[in-house]
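Format notes (please read before filing issues)

Several people have asked whether sequences and structure tokens are stored in separate files. They are not. Every record keeps both together, in the order shown below: the sequence lines, then the token lines. Line labels are part of the format and must not be stripped during preprocessing.
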Amino acid sequence: MKEKLKQVFGLLKRAGKKYRKDNPLQLAGTTAFFAIFAIAPLIIIIVSVAGMLLGQEQIQTKLFTEIDQFFGEQGAQYIRSIVENMQDTRKGIIATIVGFAIFIFISTTFFSVLQSSLNYIWRVRAKPKSNLLRALYDRLISFGLILILGFVMLLSIIVDAARSLFKDFMHERFPDLTILLIEVGNFVFYFAITMIIFATIYRFLPDARIKWRVTWVGAFITALLFVTGKAIISFGLGIFNIGAIYGAAGSLVLILLWVFYSALIFFYGAEITQQYAEMYSHDIKPKDYAVRIEINEVKSEES
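Then the structure lines:
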């Protein structure tokens, strides 16, 4: 047990050392900036795709319920207003098609930024001669991730329905334990969904080849950090009245801060994933169309 704890702390220490070198503030800041433009288009695409099966109104209601838990009522209302404004601009078939294409481009650009950051952390890069074809392929992968998010939303609604039936069943037989069991079930489901999303991103988005064992370990640790960090971030931001400090821009600042701190956690998880792979000889290697890169300091020679 003592040896295992020593290995865990050693892993976290190694990851933290490289994390500081990789300029996480810049990576997280870039991610937060592009997320501001991508959140509303992402919501519209997910609602449009998933809504084909369960109805757009039901999907949108569920989605904003989840958003409210992340950003609070103020942030959720701000995002809702942007989504409604974007939806109002799409009138007519041509406008709808063009608008949807623009939304896809904006959303996939966010994932391209995320891909670039993960490539930097894992020290891989696509070969220059394959950049054009890779750009198209990367957009397709990014859109695939968006579809996966839509599937997750469908799964969440189905689980909610099953959970309601389970709640009624348990309340009749074990009324004192119902609340505890529901809370535990909510946490387990949220944690599992978060881990699956991170595993999907780590596995398919970067220009790197990573084994599933490493993927799941990294996704588990990142999800654990994310769930813990979410509670800390929500508590920290809740102490300060962002709206009173920044006025009309309060909602925007709130979302920026939330995404920024979440990105810091996500990228630290990526560092842990890389260090775990190296510690257990499961190196993260570049894919066939990519190369490994090194970043070294070069001392200038005195004339």
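For reference, the curators noted about this record: Strands lie at 124-126, 208-209, 285-286, 290-292. Residues 11-291 form one domain.
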